[in-house]
Amino acid sequence: MAAKLLSFLFFSFHFLVFQLHFSAGQDVVRAAYWSAGSEFPVSDIDSTLFTHLFCAFADLDSQTNQVTVSSANQARFSTFTETVQLKNPYIKTLLSIGGGSSSASDFASMASQANTRKSFIDSSINIARSYGFHGLDLDWEYPSTPTEMNNLGLLLNEWRVALVNEAANTGNSRLLLSAAFFRNSDYYTLDYPIQAIQNSLDWINVMAYDFYGPGWSTVTGPPAALYNPGTQVSGDYGITSWIQSGIPSNKLVLGFPFYGYAWQLVDANNHGFFAPTSGPAITPNGDLGYGQIKDFISANSATEVYNATVVSNYCYAGTTWIGFDDTESITAKVSYCKQKGLLGYFAWHVGADDGWTLSRAASETWGS
Fold first, then answer.
1. Which domains occur in the chain, in start order?
2. Are 275 and 321 in contact (CB under 8 A)?
3. Separation between Cα atoms, residue 42 and residue 61, nearest integer Å
4. Dmax (CA) of the chain
5. Which residues are identified as catalytic?
6. How confident is the model at residue 184 (pLDDT cuts 50, 70, 90)?
7. 3-class secondary-structure state, position 189
8. Which residues form the GH18 domain (predicted)?
């Protein structure tokens, strides 16, 4: 009897320690997006490497201003949480709405009136609850006028109130609320609604990537530079600008890519950063997942370079040049997050990783 009691106490103590450790761990965000467009199986995600996963993307119906999921994605979205919890029962999942291929004008229209904002908010809560998500994530790319920025603030404030009220009325835990934003001063040099963001969001996913690419840059460049001396085109500049605007560092989550961009060099002998190019290489847009990049390196015996000044990797073979993040830059970026007191990091997207190399490097660098 005494042995059974000791065994029970031993198990209970270790379970409590585990629970406390996990609860403390939820004060950080070690996250990644899963993209339905990647066709990467949800069941293949190693969710033990993350605290949060974003399911991307739900859509905005421009006629009803409601959040919807396409029929092609309903089965995967509706079982997303239970599937990733098979490997990590404590993972938190968020339904991400919008994305780069969505219509910015549809979001602007929805956010312009109180009744259409309410339709959006109410439908987002309903679908999150019915599909078993723990939160919601807004990816409106991007508000492009002062009026749209103001309406974004109204949307966020009303969304937060609705989430709090829904939790109070149902007894459920409040749904998390995040949003993916660029630098505080984005391409349109507009300021985001800082007070609404501070009051309403649990955190910001800072998209610190796509700084250089063959579709908009005629020279090679670090697609996701952490530093870029003499310019404002870097992750550090973005993080610093958010903090200077009044957002606490512990509400910021730094984003990095599990993909890169390939350029065609004008001169094979000029193969550093900012070398002249003649357009994309390998794919029509030059975009390549990390696994594809590693395959290219192996197949072409490409030369690999890590530049610690900008915190970015690149490789080249002949006239093909690829900028990307490898384990060196991912490790340095996660260390930066910890040093700056950020809430954590996220990656786009899990399907582009190669054998969980980058995901594992990020998780191990952050530590327990």
1. 29-257+326-366 (3.20.20.80)
2. yes
3. 25
4. 80
5. 141
6. low
7. coil
8. 28-368
